[in-house]
Amino acid sequence: MYTPSAVVLVLLHLGLRSRGAPQDLASKGKVQCTCKSMECDSATCLGYLCYFTVAEGQERRGCFDLDGEQLQCVSLPKVYTKCCSSDHCNANITAPGDTADDRTAVLVTMPVLALLVLSVGLAGFIWCWRKRQAKRYQREDDGVIVPKASSKDEPTYGDMFDEFCTSGSGTGLPYLVQRTVARQIMLVECVGKGRYGEVWRGTWMGENVAVKIFSSRDEQSWFRETEIYNTVQLQHENILGFIGSDMTSKNSSTQLWLITHFHEPGSLFDVLQHRSLTPDSCLTMCLSAASGLVHLHTPILGMQGKPAIAHRDLKSRNILVKKNGQCCIADLGLAVMQCETGDYLDIGNNPRVGTKRYMAPEVLDETIQTDQFASYKQTDIWALGLVLWEISRRTVVNGIVEEYRPPFFDLVPSDPSFEQMKKVVCVDQQTPSLHNRLHSHPILAAITKVMKECWFQDPKARPTALRLRKTLSKLDQDIDHELHKLKLDL
Ligand code: ADE
For residues 326 and 288, is the Cβ–Cβ distance under 8 A? Predict the structure, then answer.
């Protein structure tokens, strides 16, 4: 079910590294191609295939010099690609529609094609409609068609995935499209900088995109995140949306990009610095963050399924705030996956560890059962509790709000050491303090109760993400219900 992308990634990796290799090496069986693109060192290149591609009116000509790259010789809705295999055969290729002959052909074939597409579309629509009806209704023994009874009000994950019109194994676009998109992005402004590298706002086809440029020492995070997004169906409103990954080689240094949706408000950490919240907006943030974590943690079986994933570096800097006030979870560079059958743990091979401030007691005292997938989910829950605490502090109750502070701000210095955190969290068993005002509001009182449960020393005693989401969504429904009653009373 999960297509191993490692092979493709390694091919990509080798392909990019081999681009700078001298042309007289291993030139047997290769052809000379015309080279006209940003990647060209000269007007010609040597490869197994020559390509011509047009995207967004921009033409590129060059070589594919890797076995497997011929997979990219396909045209996509916005990207026309043609490959050929004789010397300079790509020199004079033009995009269809460029010549008078082409135009005549288009005039003749278009109506036929349109008719064909229309009939196929109509047939598809009727088929989908009947399938949908069949799902919603059932034929009783007496032949009468009645609506199917539903066991729960909430749709199942299977139902939700049926709704997505996705194809392929992962979230991403085909690899050549990812590369094409990456090379058409204009970087506009740097919106974040850290040990991991930089995040830029860029534009592609007039739309904002976020570009995370990884520092070379964190290349394993790029590999891991790229692998996960390309192999796992991760579309969810509370998981950062993936557009593509790209690796380029410039002056013998490697640039690693991860392109995602751009969220104007920025990270939760940034937003909490300058924005105070109402109890309602606090609940929206907490519930949406929990929903994102449920999606990560939950395995989904079947063709459109996904493995269970634990994040391992959940914190307010790795959560983004969307315009609608909901959160989405970002940075899968340290994530671990559990295979479908549950008997194999894919830990990856990233030397990076999670952020010390957010580490659970069992990580700090090294008693964590590293061979159990459940252990990693339990550490995510500890960290989520800390994020809920950060959000709650910024919520106005009885006219009172606290300033933004990171968890354990009063107990450890900035950039605390492993030992400092261990003393506070394991030896002294401290948890963040909670302001009295929080107990006087039903939403904040409930969130406070939830976060205290996230901080149980015993990892197994902590609630699951699903339990947490249920508690928070019940709270949300109760509030809607109360509002509705209030409206009726008025
Ligand atoms: N900061 C980090 N990632 C971001 C994104 N995707 N959108 C906006 N700001 C960000």
Answer: yes
Q: How far is the CA of 489 from the centre of ligand 1 (A)?
A: 43
CA–centroid distance, 169 to ligand 1, in Å, is: 25
For the domain made up of 18-84, the CATH class stated in words is mainly beta
Q: Give domain 136-261's CATH architecture.
A: 2-Layer Sandwich (3.30)
Which one has a higher pLDDT value, 389 or 159? 389
Can you tell me the distance from the alpha carbon of 191 to that of 177, in angstroms, rounded to the nearest whole number? 25
Q: Phi-psi category of 342—alpha, beta or left, where left has phi over 0 and alpha has psi -120 to 50?
A: left
**Residues with a known catalytic role:** 313
Report the atom number in ligand 1 closest to the C-alpha of 266.
9
Structure pTM? 0.70
Q: What is the Å distance from ligand 1's center to 181 Cα?
A: 18
Q: CATH 1.10.510.10 region(s) of the chain?
A: 268-489
The helix (H) or strand (E) run that includes residue 46 is strand 44-47
State pLDDT tens for residues 267-277. 999 999 999 99
**Ligand 1, from 212, 214, 273, 319: best to mutate by most atoms within 8 Å of Cβ?**
212
Pocket of ligand 1 (CB under 6 A): 191-192, 199, 210, 240, 260-263, 266-267, 320, 330
Phi/psi for 352 (5° steps) reads -65, 150
C-alpha dist (Å) from residue 464 to 346, 459, 460, 468:
21, 10, 9, 6
Per residue in 157-197, pLDDT tens?
233 333 333 444 677 788 888 888 888 899 999 999 998 99
Secondary element (H or E) of residue 152: none
Q: How remote is the CA of residue 257 from the centroid of ligand 1, in Å?
A: 13
- Write out the residue limits of the CATH 2.10.60.10 domain(s) in the chain: 18-84
Strand positions, DSSP E, 238-360: 242-250, 253-261, 308-310, 319-321, 327-329, 336-338, 345-346
Q: In the predicted model, what is the mean pLDDT of residues 452-457?
A: 98
Q: Give, using CA atoms, the residue closest to atom 1 of ligand 1.
A: 266
Q: In the numeric block, which tokens belong to residue 91? A: 């020199």
Closest atom, ligand 1, to C-alpha of 240:
6
How many C-beta atoms surround the C-beta of residue 2 within 10 A? 17
Question: Which of 405, 393, 132 is closest to 282 using CA atoms?
Answer: 393
Mutate to test the pocket of ligand 1, among 213, 262, 317, 326 (most ligand atoms within 8 A of CB): 262
Mutate to test the pocket of ligand 1, among 185, 190, 199, 203 (most ligand atoms within 8 A of CB): 199
Domain 268-489 superfamily per CATH: Transferase(Phosphotransferase) domain 1 (1.10.510.10)
Sign of torsion over alpha carbons 219, 336, 162, 303: positive
Q: How far apart are the CA of 347 and the centre of ligand 1, in A?
A: 26
